[in-house]
Fold this sequence. Notes:
- This protein is mostly helical.
- It has a domain at 38-238: Transferase(Phosphotransferase) domain 1 (Transferase(Phosphotransferase), domain 1, Orthogonal Bundle).
- It is built from ten helices and six strands, in the order αββααββββααααααα.
- Helix 3 (56-75) packs antiparallel against helix 9.
- The longest helix has 45 residues, at 241-285.
- It starts with a helix and ends in a 5-residue tail after the last helix.
- This is non-specific serine/threonine protein kinase.
- Residues 1-243 form the Protein kinase domain.
- Its EC number is 2.7.11.1.
- Residues 249-290 are annotated as: Disordered.
Amino acid sequence: MNILQMCLKIPDNEKKHFVRLVDKGRTDTFKFIVMDLVGNSIDNIQRRSHHKRFSMATCINLGLQTLEGISDLHALGYLHRDIKPQNFTVGLREKSETIFLLDFGIARRYTEKSSKAIRLPREIVRFLGTVRFASRNCHRSREQCRRDDLESWMYMVLEFTDCSALPWCRTVDRKVVCTQKEKLFSGTYTKHIASLPEEFRRVLHYINELGYQSTPDYEYISNLLKRGAARSNVDLTEKFDWIRSVDESESTDRSRSLKRIGSSHSGCKKLRSRKKSHAAYGDEDRSPPK
């Protein structure tokens, strides 16, 4: 709630990835908030997509927009602490190509309200978030920082390339998952991850080098992704996969409709032609009056 209220006071270009707060209040039995309606989560879209993966153009564009949303949240002085595809959603109508960051239920301020200095880390912090995307610090019961949101973000971006890209995707044991995440950051890549543009691995290395008080260079990460796209001849001007799919489907439907109309028009012409032929044939065969 605090985050959405803060968004009301900042410039539009710094809150494009936050849903607009319309109203809030309370009744005798509950509190409520009203927000703009949004579409499906990225997780839901991916699970319904062909082969449960996105094209590289969509993967990188999703990475760029979600990174921007995380950067804007950090600029407000907050960590999300539960970055995952389920917490990003697409907009509706004129905002259908904008990605929104949701669910600030376990978000935490990492700066002091008055001085904006980084808060001192607590000694022990209970596990919060989702095992699949949680950072290694989260697994170790350590205080999280901006790096941890980026680590979770990177797991998410890797999963955009394939639903089973993360080696621990079917593992529930937290210790085993943490060990596998350590292997990833130490350079032990699966065949799939090794096949991705080199810049993905450079982002992993950069995130791993960040410290508790480090201010991430979001633009540097963004530029790495764009460079990887350029080197791989990926066209980032392409629309998201699900939008292109709808456009192609509508185009096919229009084409079929035009064919049906054309076929119907052709049939009418043939019918009129046959009627004329029959009429002419009947006149020739008719006997003259006696």
